[in-house]
Recover the amino acids of this structure.
C-alpha cells in the first residue's frame, strides 16, 4: 500500500506520454455470412508526444477517432497494435498490478456528466473509489482527501453525502474532476469534458481545469471539437480525421499557418463572424459529411472531400512530415498549397 | 428538446451548501411506491395473507391433516369454512397450505432470480464467446414447455415440496436472465462503468458493485412477479396430481377436491380464491414497484 | 412585410406533483415577419424549447399555457380546433429537431416519409410524391437524390439526416419553420453547411424561421432578430447585429464573453487568462422570485436592483430593448 505522499512522477523527462503508431480496429460484423468481417478503423496509426505540464489538444469531428485514442490510452478499449509509453513502460503491455500502478498516474474526465457518475452511489463514495481500489492511504486519510478535493473543485463538504441526481450538470462535472484528481495523477484525459455543458458553465469548468493544472503541474490531453476552446486551452494541437492525425503543431502556429486542407475547413467553420469568415467558408469549407471509418479506401483519408486532391492523394497514403518547429502535416501537396490568408 | 430540471439541483451557487437532505435512490423509490394506490392496496393485502398464515394457528388451532368431521361438512361454527372430501378442515388447510404455497413461491422466485442474475450478468458483461454459449443454454431452456418439463422433473425426482420448488426455479429463470443480460449490455458501455475501470476496478468489482446495483431495479420487479407465477405454477402441478401429498398447499386442496365442486363448493372455491388473492396482491405490488422505479429512470431523459 | 407570427405575453407553467403550477416561461412577446429569422437564445432551462412546443401546440403533459396569445397571420393558434391545428402543422408551421435520428421513423425510407407529408398536405399521388421528394432532397443539397430517396434513416450520416428533416419540414411549404437547435448534434463543418442551407432556402421560399439555440455567437449570421431568454423571461431583444455587437444586459454580455472565440493569424503565444464566467447557475423551476431573475448572478447588481421587481423589457434604441434596471448606465 502506498502512502499519500508517494505519488511522485515515475520520471521527469520532458515528455510524459509517448504514443507510437497506435492502431485500434473494431470488428464491424460481416456484410454477408462467410465473408471476411469489416473493420472500423477507429484509430489507424497515430503518434504523438505530450509534454509534461502542458495541454495537448486533439480536435476532430465524429468518427475521427479522437475519443477512441483517449480510451485506448486509458486502456478502456483494447488497442490493436502500437505503443503507449508512460514513464518507460508500455501501457499496452501491462496487466493486473502494473496496470493499477499506472492508473494512479492517468485519469479521465468524460463528456457527459450525467452518464459518468454512478446514479446509485453517493458523491463522496465515488470520489473515494479510486483511492479504495488503488489502495492509496488509510481510510481516514481517504475521507480527508475527499473533503479536500470537494473544496478544491468548488463544492461544499456536505456534497459528499448526496447522490448524483441532486447535482446540476456543472456540479456533476466538478465531481468527475474531483474523482479524476483523487489518486493525484500526472495526466488527465479530458474527453470532450466541457462539450455537454451550457456555455456559462463551460467557462467555469475550463477555468477550474486551468487552475488545477497550475497548482498541480498537471498534464492534459484535451479532446474537443470546438476550435475556439482548443485554441485557448491547449499548447499543442493535433487535428484528427478518420483515424489519422493530419496536422500537428503548437497552438500559435496552427491558427497562423495551418497547412492541411482539412484544418482549413475546420477553421473556416469556426471562424468568428465577419468578412474573413465569409471568404474562408467560400474557399475552404468542405462539403458533405465525414465518410464512415469502416474499411476506409486507400490513399489520403481526406481525399474524397478535399478540394485540392489529385490522383496521387487517392492512391497513396501521405506520411506525416515535419515542416517547421514541432509542426507536422500529412499531405502530399503540403509544399505547393499555400495556407489561407486571414486578412479578409 | 432541452432538459427541464425537474429535480431541484442543489442550491444556486456552487459554493453554497445544498438545501435538500440526501435521499438515496432506494428511499426515493419507496416514497414513490407509497404514492401508488394499487401498489399500497396490494402490499396491504399481501401483508394480511402473510399475517393470516403466520398467526392463523394461534387463532384457529386445527391440524389440516386431521379428520375433524364427516366429508363435505358445510361451513359451520365447528369448521368455519367446512370440510373437504376426507373430512379435513378447509380453513386449517388454507392457513397451513398458505405457508407452503407462499414458501414455494418465494423460494422458487429466489432460485429463478439467482440463476437468471448469474447467467445474465456473465453473459451481458463479458459478451463474445461466453455470451454466445450462455445465450444458447438460455434458449434451450426457453423452448422447453415449462409445465411439461417441470412435470418430468417432479416425476423423476419425487413428489416432494423441495423438488417442486427446484423444478419451478429450473424452468422459469430464462426471462430473468434475458432481462439481466440486456441491462448489463446497456450499462457496461456507460461512462461511469469506464470511470470505475479507470479507477482500477477489476471485473468482479465491476459486476458486483457497479453494474449489479444499477441492473437490479427491473429485475426486482420481475422477481416480485415471479413469486406470483411460482405460486400459480405450484397450484398447477398439484392440480394435475403432481403436488406433494404429505404437505398441505392451496394447489393440493384444489387438485384433490376438484371432482367434488358440485357437492362441496367451499372445498374448491376457498383455496382457489386464496391463490387468486395472493397472486393478485403480488401483481399489484409488482406494478407499484415498477411505477416507483421507472419515473426515476425516465427523469434521467 | 406583414407580421406572420405574433406571440403576445405568452406564459407557460408546469403542473407539479402537488398541483401547483410553476412558471416555466413568463410574458414572452415577439413577432416574426415572412422571410425573416428570429432567434431565441438561452441556456438549458430558460424556456426556449417550451416556446417552440407551445407554438406547435405540442407541449408535453403537465405543461400548460397559462396566458397569452399566439397569432399566425392573425389566427389565434391556442384556440384553434385540433383539426385545424393538424392542417396548420406542416402547411402553416413545421419544426425541425435537434436529434434527426430520433425524429425520423427508422422503418420507412426517407422518400416514403417526405412523400407522406406531401400526400397529406397537397394530395398528390404516389409517383408525383416521389418526384417531389427527389426535388426536395436536391433542394437541401443531398447528392444523388434519386438513390437517397430509397435510403433508410440509419443509412445516412447525421448531416444527411438533418437535411432530410429540413426537406420534410419544407414539404408542406410552411409559412413558419421552427428550428430547435438544428445543428447542435452535428459536426462543426456540417453545422456551417446547414446554417448556409437554411439561409439559402429562406431566400427562395420566404419562410419565416424561429431559430432556437444556446449559441449566441453562431446565430448572428442567420438571425435578423434575437431574443435572449433567461429563466423563462426575455431579458434582451432586438436587431441581431445590435444585440451581438452592443449587448446591454449583463447576462447577454456574459454569454458572449464566456465563449472563447477563435483568433486567426499570427499572434504571439499567450499565457492563459481566465475566461469570463457567469458565477452560479440558472435558478431552477419554482425558485424564481418576483425580482430580477438574474439578480443572484449579476455582477452589476446594485441596491436598486435588489429592492425592485423584474424590470420591464423597455427600449434603449429603436430596435433594441432590455430588461434591466441599470440599462441606461450600462448602455452608455
Amino acid at each position: 500500500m502506498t502512502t499519500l505522499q508517494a505519488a511522485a512522477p515515475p520520471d521527469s523527462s520532458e515528455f510524459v506520454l509517448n504514443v507510437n503508431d497506435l492502431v485500434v480496429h473494431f470488428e464491424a460484423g460481416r456484410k454477408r455470412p462467410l465473408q471476411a468481417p469489416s473493420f472500423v478503423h477507429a484509430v489507424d496509426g497515430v503518434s504523438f508526444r505530450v509534454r509534461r505540464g502542458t495541454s495537448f489538444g486533439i480536435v476532430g469531428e465524429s468518427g475521427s477517432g479522437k475519443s477512441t485514442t483517449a480510451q485506448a490510452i486509458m486502456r478502456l478499449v483494447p488497442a490493436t497494435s502500437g505503443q503507449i509509453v508512460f514513464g518507460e513502460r508500455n501501457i499496452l503491455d501491462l496487466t493486473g498490478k502494473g496496470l493499477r500502478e499506472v492508473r494512479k498516474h492517468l485519469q479521465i474526465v468524460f463528456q457527459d456528466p450525467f452518464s459518468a457518475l454512478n446514479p446509485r452511489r453517493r458523491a463522496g463514495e465515488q470520489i473515494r473509489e479510486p483511492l479504495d481500489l488503488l489502495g492509496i492511504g488509510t481510510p481516514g486519510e481517504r475521507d480527508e482527501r475527499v473533503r479536500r478535493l470537494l473544496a478544491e473543485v468548488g463544492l461544499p463538504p456536505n456534497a459528499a453525502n448526496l447522490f448524483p441526481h441532486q447535482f446540476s450538470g456543472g456540479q456533476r462535472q466538478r465531481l468527475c474532476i474531483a474523482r479524476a484528481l483523487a489518486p493525484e495523477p500526472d495526466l488527465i484525459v479530458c474527453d470532450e469534458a466541457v462539450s455537454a455543458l451550457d456555455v456559462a458553465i463551460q467557462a467555469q469548468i475550463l477555468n477550474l481545469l486551468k487552475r488545477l493544472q497550475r497548482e498541480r503541474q498537471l498534464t492534459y490531453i484535451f479532446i474537443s471539437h470546438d476550435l475556439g476552446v482548443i485554441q485557448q486551452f491547449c499548447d499543442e494541437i493535433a487535428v484528427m480525421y478518420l483515424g489519422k492525425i493530419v496536422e500537428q503543431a503548437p497552438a500559435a502556429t496552427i491558427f497562423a499557418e495551418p497547412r492541411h486542407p482539412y484544418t482549413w475547413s475546420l477553421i473556416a467553420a469556426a471562424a468568428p463572424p465577419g468578412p474573413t469568415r465569409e471568404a474562408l467558408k467560400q474557399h475552404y469549407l468542405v462539403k458533405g459529411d465525414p465518410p464512415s471509418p469502416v474499411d476506409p479506401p486507400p490513399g489520403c483519408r481526406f481525399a474524397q472531400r478535399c478540394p485540392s486532391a489529385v490522383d496521387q492523394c487517392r492512391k497513396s497514403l501521405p506520411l506525416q512530415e515535419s515542416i517547421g518547429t514541432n509542426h507536422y502535416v500529412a499531405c502530399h501537396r503540403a509544399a505547393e498549397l499555400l495556407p489561407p490568408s486571414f486578412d479578409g | 428538446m432541452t432538459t427541464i430540471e425537474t429535480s431541484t439541483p442543489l442550491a444556486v451557487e456552487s459554493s453554497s451548501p445544498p438545501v435538500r437532505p440526501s435521499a438515496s435512490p432506494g428511499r426515493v423509490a419507496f416514497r414513490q411506491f407509497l404514492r401508488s394506490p394499487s401498489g399500497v392496496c396490494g402490499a396491504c393485502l399481501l401483508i394480511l395473507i402473510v399475517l393470516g398464515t403466520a398467526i392463523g394457528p394461534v387463532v384457529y388451532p386445527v391440524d389440516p391433516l386431521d379428520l375433524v368431521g364427516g366429508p363435505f361438512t358445510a361451513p359451520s361454527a365447528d369448521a368455519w369454512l367446512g370440510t373437504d372430501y376426507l373430512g379435513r378442515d378447509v380453513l386449517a388447510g388454507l392457513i397451513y397450505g398458505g405457508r407452503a404455497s407462499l414458501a414455494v413461491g418465494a423460494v422458487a422466485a429466489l432460485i429463478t432470480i439467482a440463476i437468471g442474475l448469474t447467467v445474465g450478468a456473465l453473459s451481458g458483461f463479458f459478451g463474445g464467446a461466453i455470451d454466445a454459449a450462455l445465450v444458447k443454454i438460455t434458449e434451450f431452456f426457453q423452448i422447453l414447455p415449462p409445465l411439461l418439463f417441470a412435470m418430468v422433473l417432479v416425476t423423476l425426482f419425487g413428489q416432494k415440496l423441495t423438488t417442486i420448488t427446484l423444478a419451478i426455479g429450473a424452468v422459469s429463470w430464462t426471462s430473468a436472465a434475458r432481462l439481466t443480460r440486456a441491462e448489463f449490455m446497456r450499462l457496461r458501455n456507460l461512462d461511469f462503468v469506464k470511470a470505475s475501470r479507470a479507477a482500477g476496478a477489476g471485473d468482479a468489482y465491476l459486476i458486483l458493485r457497479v453494474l449489479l446495483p444499477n441492473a437490479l431495479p427491473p429485475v426486482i420487479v420481475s422477481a416480485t412477479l415471479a413469486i406470483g407465477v411460482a405460486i400459480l405454477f405450484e397450484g398447477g402441478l398439484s392440480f394435475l396430481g403432481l403436488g406433494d401429498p404429505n404437505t398441505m398447499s392451496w394447489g393440493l386442496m384444489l387438485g384433490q377436491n376438484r371432482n367434488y365442486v358440485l357437492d362441496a363448493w367451499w372445498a374448491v372455491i376457498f383455496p382457489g380464491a386464496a391463490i387468486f388473492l395472493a397472486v393478485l396482491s403480488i401483481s399489484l405490488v409488482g406494478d407499484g414497484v415498477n411505477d416507483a422505479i421507472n419515473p426515476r429512470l425516465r427523469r434521467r431523459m | 412585410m406583414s407580421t406572420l407570427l405574433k406571440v403576445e405575453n405568452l406564459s407557460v407553467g408546469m403542473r407539479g406533483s402537488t398541483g401547483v403550477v410553476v412558471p416555466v416561461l413568463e410574458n414572452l412577446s415577439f413577432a416574426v415577419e415572412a422571410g425573416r429569422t428570429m432567434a431565441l437564445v438561452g441556456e438549458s432551462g430558460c424556456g426556449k424549447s417550451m416556446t417552440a412546443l407551445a407554438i406547435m401546440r405540442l407541449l408535453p403533459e403537465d405543461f400548460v399555457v397559462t396566458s397569452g396569445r399566439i397569432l399566425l397571420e392573425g389566427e389565434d393558434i391556442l384556440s384553434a380546433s385540433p383539426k385545424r391545428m393538424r392542417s396548420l402543422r406542416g402547411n402553416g408551421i413545421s419544426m425541425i429537431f435537434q436529434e434527426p435520428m430520433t425524429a425520423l421513423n427508422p422503418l420507412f425510407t426517407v422518400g416514403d416519409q417526405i412523400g407522406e407529408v406531401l400526400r397529406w398536405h397537397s394530395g398528390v399521388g404516389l409517383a408525383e410524391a416521389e418526384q417531389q421528394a427527389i426535388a426536395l432532397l436536391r433542394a437541401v443539397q443531398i447528392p444523388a437524390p434519386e438513390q437517397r430517396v430509397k435510403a433508410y434513416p440509419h443509412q445516412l450520416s447525421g448531416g444527411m439526416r438533418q437535411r432530410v428533416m429540413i426537406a420534410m419540414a419544407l414539404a408542406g411549404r410552411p409559412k413558419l419553420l421552427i428550428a430547435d437547435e438544428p445543428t447542435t448534434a452535428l459536426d462543426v463543418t456540417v453545422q456551417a453547411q446547414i446554417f448556409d442551407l437554411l439561409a439559402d432556402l429562406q431566400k427562395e421560399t420566404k419562410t419565416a424561421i424561429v431559430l432556437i439555440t444556446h449559441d449566441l455567437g453562431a446565430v448572428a449570421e442567420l438571425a435578423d432578430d434575437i431574443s435572449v431568454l433567461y429563466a423563462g423571461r426575455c431579458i434582451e431583444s432586438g436587431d441581431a447585429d445590435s444585440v451581438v455587437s452592443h449587448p446591454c444586459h449583463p447576462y447577454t454580455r456574459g454569454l458572449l464573453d464566456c465563449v472563447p472565440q477563435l483568433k486567426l493569424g499570427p499572434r504571439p503565444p499567450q499565457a492563459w487568462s481566465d475566461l469570463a464566467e457567469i458565477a452560479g447557475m440558472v435558478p431552477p423551476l419554482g425558485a424564481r422570485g418576483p425580482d430580477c431573475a438574474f439578480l443572484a448572478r449579476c455582477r452589476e447588481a446594485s441596491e436598486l436592483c435588489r429592492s425592485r421587481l423584474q424590470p420591464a423589457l423597455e427600449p434603449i434604441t429603436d430596435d433594441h430593448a432590455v430588461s434591466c434596471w441599470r440599462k441606461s448606465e450600462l448602455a452608455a
